[in-house]
Design a protein that fits this description.
Number of strands: 19
Largest sheet: 6 strands, antiparallel
CATH topology of one domain: FAD/NAD(P)-binding domain
Helix content: 10-25%
Strand content: 15-25%
Radius of gyration: 23 Å
Shape: globular
Strand order of the largest sheet: 6-13-14-15-12-18
CATH superfamily of one domain: FAD/NAD(P)-binding domain
Distance between the termini: 29 Å
Length: 552
């Protein structure tokens, strides 16, 4: 038996029913759902296990002047090499975590449902493609996902799709700055409402209510915000096994090319192991899943495993962010609570094809926390200058006195997620010139905005200006529409469909090409809308688990 230097047993499990690759929300929910029904499950995770007892220390590290998300979550280096080749730079390592829990270890926790129109884009507008399933097919899974994650929300959103059950917890109340936005929105006929979020507004599922550390990104020390390691631990309590720090190198299939036989993974000491199973589930995200399938090419699949359609890696989606900020001539009295409390979906459903859907979020803007100001010398006038991380002007008692005399925060902000349509040229491919520590080609992400999204971004900016003008806000900054940053909502690359010539997985989440290979991920999205995708990913994972259970 070979063990890594940390003493952990990383030998393969013997004849499990299911092997899950990845332990983010999709992998964790699939593993728990199947293990709780008596199936033998093993999870292979490329990154380490981050102990929950270390969260407070991690938070303290991130608010130090030299702290960074990448350092706290062990992102970067040879393992995480990538290339961005599209017209707009895609900073992949700024928005992902490889570890038990995946990117939910540092997400914001916003969990709306997709709208009905998102599943019917071609039928309604002649754009993109329809999903092979509709909103009603996912409706019961959405409700299950809200219960599993623990979602705080309110039925005050007149634009949301129909639902059958109330939210598990009450919504967070609106902030004071939300009330300032509300006055302007009332004049403009814009309806604000609460935000569903996977953050406990009260004790739920053995975790405390939110205590307001204000560091949701990059780390929640209290555990009030959901992260997928919650369901990993639940899966383990049902008998599932987790093997961490074992990046999967390739999948091997049988002689017929119809069944996956093994996932070949590497241990920290470089040893290669083969994990066999009856069923395999890929749940490692919309970048690493196509990369793994392309790395697994064979004589039977010369263009990559499960890629007879040629769609693996194509139709990558992520919404561009459109943001604006300003100052008022009155204090906004904000506390750095770390998350948002109000948004509007009023501009989501639309009659004409363009502009597309927009989700607006009203920001709780605080220039920095008291702790950060203290560490930076109490000087908040240099906000936005990266050098102020290292060049505070005052320290100790002097800094405290400046903070006591600090002027009230007068900042307001508003950002939007505009819809980006799937485009064949937006894709994940292998970069043969850039390799990881094992010599495997790194992922190359090509992210291009397109005319539909750009028209929608312009429309979002116009609405933002109307709101800021109504508030008599002095605009201090606007995001660059020509080079937006992504929302970190990675979707597409192994799309769902009925036609095996145009898609990678069936509506059951099983691949067309291999009878025992399933994909549970945002990678199966056909369109992405303008919503945060995690709740839909969770719903699809629960759906996949039901189909896998039926097949075993």
């Amino acid at each position: 038996m070979t063990q890594a230097t940390d003493g952990q047993d990383r030998t393969p499990s013997e004849n499990p029913d299911v092997c899950v690759v990845g332990s983010g929300p999709a992998g964790a929910l699939v593993a728990y759902s199947l293990a709780s029904r008596g199936h033998d499950v093993v999870i292979l995770e490329a990154g380490p296990r981050f102990e929950r007892s270390d969260r407070l220390q991690q938070m303290e590290e991130t608010i130090r002047p030299e702290g960074s998300i990448e350092d706290v979550w062990d992102v970067g280096g040879e393992r995480d090499r990538y290339t961005s080749s599209g017209e707009t730079f895609y900073g992949l390592n700024k928005t992902r975590v490889k570890g038990v829990g995946g990117t939910t270890l540092h997400w914001l926790g916003i969990v709306p449902r997709l709208h009905e129109k998102d599943f019917e884009m071609n039928t309604r507008y002649g754009l993109a493609s329809d999903w092979p399933i509709g909103y009603d097919d996912l409706r019961p899974y959405y409700a299950r996902a809200e219960r599993e994650l623990g979602v705080a929300g309110s039925e005050d959103n007149p634009f949301e799709p129909p639902r059958d059950e109330p939210f598990p917890m009450e919504a967070f109340p609106p902030s004071y700055s939300d009330s300032l936005f509300a006055e302007a929105c009332d004049e403009l006929g814009i309806t604000m409402h609460s935000i569903p979020q996977a953050r406990n507004s009260e004790a739920y599922d053995g975790r405390s209510g939110c205590v307001g550390y204000s560091t949701c990104i990059p780390v929640c020390p209290s555990g009030a915000k959901y992260s997928a390691d919650v369901h990993v631990r639940k899966a383990e309590s049902e008998g599932a096994r987790v093997i961490d720090r074992v990046p999967v190198q390739r999948l091997e299939h049988d002689d017929t090319g119809e069944h996956v036989e093994a996932a070949v993974y590497a241990t920290p000491d470089g040893t290669r192991r083969r994990q066999t199973a009856d069923r395999f589930v890929l749940a490692c995200g919309a970048v690493e899943i196509p990369r793994l399938l392309l790395l697994s090419k064979s004589d039977a699949y010369p263009d990559g495993l499960a890629n007879s359609s040629g769609a693996v890696g194509r139709y990558f989606m992520d919404q561009p962010i459109v943001s604006i900020g300003g100052v008022l001539d009155q204090p906004t009295n904000q506390n750095p609570i770390g998350y948002h409390t109000s948004e509007t979906h009023q501009f989501y459903d639309h009659d004409d094809p363009s502009p597309g859907s927009i989700k607006f979020v009203f920001e709780n803007v605080n220039p920095m926390t008291a702790a950060t100001r203290a560490l930076r010398g109490g000087d908040e006038s240099t906000r936005g200058d990266l050098t102020d991380l290292f060049t505070g002007d005052s320290w100790g008692d002097e800094a405290l006195e400046e903070m006591r005399d600090d002027v009230p925060n007068q900042r307001v902000g508003l950002f939007a997620n505009p819809e980006l349509l799937p485009r064949e040229k937006n894709r994940v491919v292998l970069d043969e010139s850039r390799t990881d520590q094992f010599g495997n080609p790194a992922p190359n992400v090509s992210w291009n905005i397109g005319s539909h999204a750009r028209e929608t971004m312009e429309h979002a900016r116009e609405i933002q200006h109307r709101v800021m003008d109504e508030m008599d806000a002095e605009i201090t900054h606007e995001s660059d529409l020509s080079s937006p940053r992504p929302a970190s909502h990675k979707m597409g690359t192994t799309r769902m469909g009925d036609d095996p010539a145009e898609s990678v997985v069936r509506p059951t989440l099983r691949t067309h090409d291999l009878r025992n290979l399933y994909i549970a991920s945002g990678s199966v999205f056909v369109t992405g809308g303008a919503m945060n995708p995690t709740l839909t990913i969770a719903a699809l994972a629960l759906k996949a688990a039901d189909h896998i259970d039926e097949s075993l």
